[in-house]
Structure formats: C-alpha cells, structure tokens
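Worked Example 4.2. Read the sequence first, then its structure tokens.
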Amino acid sequence: MLLKNGYLIDPQSGTEGYRDILIEDGRIARIVPCGEAVRGSAAAPEGVPRVGDVIDLRGRIVAPGLVDVHVHFRDPGFTYKEDIYTGAKAAARGGFTSVVLMANTKPPVDNAETLRYVIDKGAETDIHVYSCANVTKGLRGAELTDMETLSAQGAVGFTDDGIPLMDERLLREALKRAAACHRPVSLHEENPALITDNGVNAGRAAAGFGIGGSPREAEISMVERDLMIAVEEGADLSIQHISTREAVELVRQAKKKSPHIYAEATPHHFTLTEEAVIAHGTLAKMNPPLREEADRQAIIEGLRDGTIDMIATDHAPHSAEEKARPLTEAPSGIIGLETALSLGIRELVNKGYLTMAELLRKMSLAPAKLYHLDAGYLAEGGPADLVIFDPHGEWTVHTFASKASNSPFVGETLPGVIACTICGGRIAYDGGMRD
C-alpha cells in the first residue's frame, strides 16, 4: 500500500512535512518525499518497493493511530451497553488503533480466564485491544490479585477504575508489585465517604437539582494521599480523569519529585463545566463530575505545560433506558471515542493552547509509552497504525458506531473529519478516503 501526498506528523521524531508512506506486511517499509514511489513503476528508486494499492491523501494529515488507555467496552457482563466488537468499531471511527480496556466488568478481570477472554476477543477486531487487570480481587479493595500471573498473561496495567482503593497498605503493596512487573497502576480518585450524590459537582449544578453532589475534596484528598505513596515507592502511577485545579497542582508538584507520576484528562473535562449538567442532565453526568470553569482552565494549562501527559476518553457507554432515569438514579459516564480528536482540535489546537503535534503526542505516543505499547509513532520498520484526517473539515455528531449514544455533544458540528484509520496495514475505518 502506498499513501501519497499526506502531511505527516510524527510526535516521536518531531518530523512534519509532506511524505509518501509505503506499507508492507503490516509495517511501514519506507517514508519518502512525495512522488518518489510510483505504482508498478520499474523506475522506482532503489529500495522502494512497488505497490499495488495507492491512496492519495490529498494533503490530509497522516499521524500515528491514536491510543486510548481508558475505555470501557462492558464485555463481559454488560454487552447490551457495548461489546468488544462494537467498541473497536467506535475506536476505529474515532481514529484509534490501540485501546486499553478497564477491568470493572462482570466477572471482573481479576483472573487469567477472564483476561484471556478479553484479549482473545479483542484479537478478532480490526484494532489492537489491550486490557488492564484489577488491582484487587472482585474490586472489593481487600485482597490483591495475582498481579504477576496476570501481567505474564498479558495485562498491560492494573486498575480498579470506578472504585477508589481506600486501603493505604494495600495500595503501597500493589505499587511495589506492579513496579516489579513493569506495569503502571491507574487510580480512580474519589473518596465515597465525602460524596452524597455522585456524578454531579457539589456546586451550582447540584444546588440547581436540589442534591448534595460530589465535592472537589473527594478527589483532592485521594490524589494527595496516593501521590505521596507513589513518590515514596518510585512506582508508575497514573491519576485518571483529573477534574479539579487542586489535583492538577498536586500532580505538578509530585512530578518534580518523581519521574513516575502521570495524569490523564478527558475531552469532556477540558471542554465542559457543570453548566453542561444543567443543560443536558444525565447525558453530562459522570464520575468524577464536570466542575467549574477555573477547573477546566487548570486542566488545559496542565495539558499545555506537560503536567497532564495524556488525553484519554473514559469511553463509558450506557443504554438510552438507563440514561433516561432520574438524575440521581442514572449511571454516570459518556461515550467519547468518536468525538475525542475533534474536541481536542476545537478546544486545544484551534484556540492556541497546543500545536497539532502536541495534541497528537498526548493522544498517541505518551499513553503508548506509559503502557509499553508499540504504538504512537511513524517510522520505517514501525507499525503501520495510522489515522488520516482533515483538521479543517467539519462534521455533525448524529450517529455512532458504538452501541450507545450517551453524549452531550449530539447535534454539535465539530472540526476534524477522519478519512481513514489503518491498523496493521489494513483499513479499519474508511470515512470516504477512496471517494
């Protein structure tokens, strides 16, 4: 396959410019100046293979396939919301070629059998599907899983996402064992003892609905404790879906003490505030909740100055029936794979906070590095995992490849049209590239 006339952006090497990319056997064979490779031409430069399939990118950006290290595909146990097959299709449509699944399924991924089920089913999709395993058995926070066996069986990290780890002793031991396995631990930071009604900020939004909500202290207290322990243990720790300005600052200071501290931000947390809950109700209910404008700005600044390493969607599908319940009864979470790149372009690049290369680094190379994935870069000999998109084109959010449609962005017109997603040298999503 020859991809010609694309504007290549590689966050690893810093390369930007018009290039032709030759793909062979699922890897990138050559990256050459535009026009050096001609289909079927015996006069092609020495070392440049002839190709049978030529796709003209027409100046669109070609970048590493996006990497999302925080998604819920609800499989096994809740496949009426999403399954691994439909989740993978949503990922490919959003430009993602690698995803890391969270482990709060039913049964949870606290054993080798469930982990193998997830990995094997993921291998049947058009993208790379990886999975975390649980930190504790049954997500109960009382006993650690067999982290060594789960790591050997393919778990790329450990998390009890959705449930905070309250036992300090257990967290310290988990960090030690995960570090010995060269795996990160990712933590959901909300102290349930401080929360009256989850999913809604304990502020203007909660007051408007007449509920207690989730105070910022629920996140701040957990982040402060867990960063201190991680710094002491020298273990890779990722603070998931950060939502408060205080937590951003805590991460900023912890990074000065340890190179093992990481944080992720979601597109909804750098785009929306609690006002969205007032406007959209349950479609903007999530854990941790959307907070104030000052928090949104602090997250953007954290992305800009490198405090927040990664953008991850926390793709959380639910059925329409579930989201139609009253606010305090409906589950938290929104889908995000198919809108993430567009929101990054609109909120971060077009408004001057990040360059396109910086955005792509946070959506590909940085998460890949933390989870030790061979992804997030474009180089000869590297994986042929690519996303091709027009940053100036626009599309309107209507339908999804996901089973779910629980998104507050439905009806909005966004920049960034994905033309094609290629994974392992094969087209995983064609958005009209050949038209």
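Now turn to a second chain, presented in exactly the same format:
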Amino acid sequence: MSEIELIRRCYERIVAADFPHAAQDDEREAVKGVRVRGCHGNTQNVLFFTLTLEDGRLRDVRYDCQYCEPAMYITAEVLCELLEDRPLGLLAELDDAAVIGALGGESRKILRQARTAVELLGEALAGA
C-alpha cells in the first residue's frame, strides 16, 4: 500500500470514530505545544497534548491540533494510543516499530512527525 493510501485509510478511520482522542474545549491546559512542519506550503502544524501524570504514568492523553493536515491528526491519534498508560521513564523508548504497528503500515511523514512530537513532549515533561 502506498503512503498516501495508508494516510487516507487511517484518516478515514479517525473521522469515522469522530477523533476519539481529541481534547474538548473545556479540558485542561496543554502540557506542551509541539510544532511540526508538514502542511501544504511549508506552513506549521501545531499540536498540543494534554495529559495527567499519575504514579509516573501518562494517563488520559489527549491532543488539540491547530492548522493541521490529515497526517498530523493521524500522528496525534496514534501517539495518544501509544502513550496512554506508558511510564514516563519509557517515553523515549517509543520507537518507529510501535508507530508502524499502530498505523498498519509505514509512513515516513508520520514517523518524522511522531519522532519530533515524542522528543518535544519528553522535554516538556522532563521536570515532572
């Protein structure tokens, strides 16, 4: 399956599920805004994560996308699934294989966005 077909299939699944990990307007303040290049015209995607850190584990992981293209929503949904209930100390160990498995295929674009988001989220939570 081509990368564009994978992105289309994943995005259709997320839309059909009504963006299950998207933060609601009234939810907590974002932990960190993560900026990742990728939109048409080389503009910025802006991805915010909200979560609860409980007993050293990431809980109730949600996201808010601004100016985002479909691939960023896929990245956000996949990361929420993979980060939920993960020990904070193992955040940096989230690897490409886990993302590929959650996607059901490989997308260089989504892998690049996921690596950046996890790195910046790790930096934001380093003092937690």
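Notes for the reader: The helical segments are 3-16, 70-83, 96-103, 108-125. The CA atoms of residues 72 and 99 lie 13 Å apart.
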